[in-house]
Amino acid sequence: METLSPDLQPDQQPRRWDDHVSLYEAVFEPLTNAFAARALDALGVGPGLFCLDIGAGSGGAALLAARRGAFVLAIDASPRMAQRIAARARYADPGRVYTAVMDGGALAFANASIDRALSVFGVILFPDPVGALREIGRVLKRGGRVAVVTWTEPQRYELATRVGAAITAVRGPQPAPATLPAQLRFCQEVAFRDLFEQAGLTVERITVVEDSLCAPSAQWLAERLAFAPGLAAWLAAQGEDRAAVLDRFAADLERDHGLGPVALTAVAFLGVARR
User: Fold this and answer.
1) 130: buried, middle or exposed (CB in 10 Å: 19+, 13-18, 0-12)?
2) Helix (H, G, I), strand (E, B), or coil: what is residue 109?
3) Closest by CA position to 113, among listed 62, 71, 69
4) In terms of CB atoms within 10 Å, which of 47, 175, 187, 212 comes out highest?
5) Does 21 score more than 90 pLDDT?
């Protein structure tokens, strides 16, 4: 994932994430942490285990695993994300969370050296997710397990549907994207299951998990909506209508939720597999 390429979508280019660290942590990490907690439960992460977090973002899942007593190596190909994880770990869990800037498709670990692995909306963005999962399988101990979180039921990812509705309201119906967003490649269970199987991993279970992206207000969220490269690019593509789109997004949320806290539905698959 380290090469900037016009062939990759914005969310697939790690260097672009360097510019979104604080917004991502503030806006999106609480949701990813909710999914990560369920992944850690499913993996049985606890004291004495060595856990690998691939595409670790700003470090939320790694810190959750450390609080359960695990030793964690959190890797991300975005240098600033990795720096943020290291800074947070020094303050919250010194000695339990280690950080590295690393390509998740070429893990610098010995075979069979990791007890557990997880990736929350990380591996699914990789240009070669099968190869990345195969790498995870290589470093897992025999019987070791990995949990991956990916989107499903995108029509129920309320943040994206509301942004799309605001764009339509301001600019009229928009053409469908020419390319499926990378993060939606595995939103059907058969495709998600096949991802693990192609990597040589045995699927234990795939479950649907639901939670909410929460914000203190509609306006707060609108002001921080560009928390990921893909969303930033989507908003930038609105050109002179960008401000009107954000205003409409906030107004629609206030109509439905009032001026106080906002909770937007998000639905994902949690897949657990073993080596």
Assistant:
1) middle
2) coil
3) 71
4) 187
5) yes
11 burial (CB, 10 Å; 0-12 / 13-18 / 19+) is buried
Residue range 10-154+178-211+268-274 forms a domain whose CATH class is: alpha beta
pLDDT band (50, 70, 90) for residue 1: very low
Whether the pLDDT of residue 180 is over 90: the answer is no
Residue holding tokens 């917004």? 23
Helices 79-92 and 60-67 pack at an angle, to 10 degrees, of: 30
Give the position of tokens 């439905």.
Answer: 256
Q: Tell me the two tokens of residue 113.
A: 């050296």
Give just the sign of the alpha carbon dihedral 54, 210, 41, 133.
Answer: negative
How far is Cα 16 from Cα 13, in angstroms, rounded to an integer?
A: 6
**What residues does each domain of the chain span?**
10-154+178-211+268-274
Q: Smallest Cα–Cα separation from 120: which of 188, 74, 54?
A: 54
Burial class (CB in 10 A: 0-12, 13-18, 19+), 172: exposed
pLDDT band at 91 (very low <50, low <70, confident <90, very high): confident
Residue 222 has pLDDT above 80, yes or no: yes
Token pair 């499926």 in the structure block, residue: 180
